[in-house]
Amino acid sequence: MHARIYRSLPVRLVEVDIDDPPPRDLPLEEAIIDVCTPTSVHTESLAWGYAGGARCFLVEKPVAPEVSTWRRQLDAMPAAQVFVVHSYLFSEAFRVACDAMPEARDITITFTKDRRDDDHRGRGAGPDGRLPHLLHIEGPHQAAMALMISPQFRVGHAAFLAYGTRGPDQVAPLASAIALLDGAGRRAMLATGLHSRPQRRLQLCDGKARQVIAEFSTSPELISEVYERDRGDRVRMLFSGRDDLLRRTLQCGLQSLSTGSVPPGATAGFADSVLTLIDEACRLAEGENLTPIPCQATA
Hints:
By secondary structure, this protein is α/β, with parallel strands linked by helices.
């Protein structure tokens, strides 16, 4: 997807394999490296580029398998500029929803995705053949949105709700729920699931029955909607239209790294906060003494 977007832009695109040395005719010190390798080799990809002279990087979410690995890599490349692809933060639907309810008290972010075909083909697996962890697929998008709304959010509770088979011989969590709290009385629930009807939804509530809901695109048409629902269940549309958030994010990344200015939601430090939240949620969920519910079929 990244390559298709770059090919439509006035930039020179060179795809490389980090197992090979950089092409001799490719001056990495003048390049912007887009790291869209499996999560397990994100930091290895960064190290490859930095050793070759590159100093500007875009990195997919999540930036690393765990926050400690991310921090060690940043320490090893002090001169680097990094733009992290938290693409939902660049969505028009996200902007409209947050502007419509800046003082949201209750937040629900639901991301579900059907990855059966990807899992069968091993798409996204690392060099060891392991597929991404559930919370490394959609969780960083949700955590980034929550932390952009309230940087003080911390994990109050987390649990894996269902387990199933992913890829060959890999039993893994297929659904999770994470409750976030901040010191100002805000609450957020992040619901994530695989093998169910695709849904990407942000719901903001002011605590008085007024709601603003953003339905992000799950189809190739890239149509998103934002609407408001009041106490009387009346609905008012706030936005409906094409919302190509990945294209917008990558274009912003190229411009930001070219000018040396990275927006707050794309900085290495913000990515650290997102991964810290995900790490804590994983730790709490894995420590739950609950019997996993088998889940093999589409909900």
